[in-house]
Amino acid sequence: AAAKGKLLSKMSKKHTCETIIPILVNLKAMLEKNKSPLIKPLMAFLREIFRSWKKEVKEALANNPTLMEELEYESKKYTLAQKSKKERLEKGKLELLQKALGEGEDPAGPKEGKSRANQQKERLARLAGTL
Description:
mainly alpha
């Protein structure tokens, strides 16, 4: 039963790719020709299909190597953009924490018994817990 389910799933993916991918390729060409802003969401959809069903898409796009290369490129570009976005977000959080530490300093200097570095670490830990 499990093998039958796997086979049906595989056949369904293949059929979907063979049916839908050519339609999407034609739609992409039409959108490019008309310089439509809808090309971006279409490419996002194609990229997601490519990511999920890479093997089946490669088989379906065997006769369109240019689009296959474009999808691979878009997929890599998207992955790098996501990584860059995550890094910028982390950097922004760090800058925000550093700014908060700098603005919250006691002008009289460190409190008795604690170094300035230890106070900053404690403040950083408290702020990090609130983000």
